Amino acid sequence: MGRPALRRKVLFVEDESALRRTYKRFFAGRYDVAFAASGSEARSQMDQFSPEVLVLDLRLPDTDGITLLQEIRQSRPALPVIVTTSYVSMEPLINVLDLGHSGYLVKPFDLEDLAARIDALG
Questions:
Q1: What pLDDT sits at residue 4?
Q2: What letter does residue 14 receive in the DSSP assignment?
Q3: How far apart (Å, rounded) are the C-alpha atoms in residues 48 and 94?
Q4: Radius of gyration (C-alpha) of the chain in whole angstroms
Q5: How confident is residue 5, by pLDDT bands cut at 50, 70 and 90?
Q6: Could you tell me if residue 4 is inside a domain?
Q7: CA-based end-to-end distance of the chain
Q8: In the chain, N or C terminus with fewer CB closer than 10 Å?
Q9: 2 falls within a domain
């Protein structure tokens, strides 16, 4: 018997507590998960948890996701990032497109779709 494969470490940055709980229920059996409800928590988790994939909501209480993504890109340029947003307008996403993210989903989205995108990375 081989050693079990290491589970991918995924950090979910999401300010909606109900959605964080949903992510935890859905993904905890599939990935090694951590959560942040704000930009400051995300910065802390980036150092402590060292994720392999970041799922980032663009709307956060203490910063916007684009600013946070720009900061993360400076220290972790190769980190795959999936942006989630409830913005119907594409304008904020256009600002993100050149930041090397790995896709985006507009809320509400199917959790299996998000899982497929995470699985497809690397």
A1: 52
A2: -
A3: 30
A4: 14
A5: low
A6: no
A7: 24
A8: N
A9: no
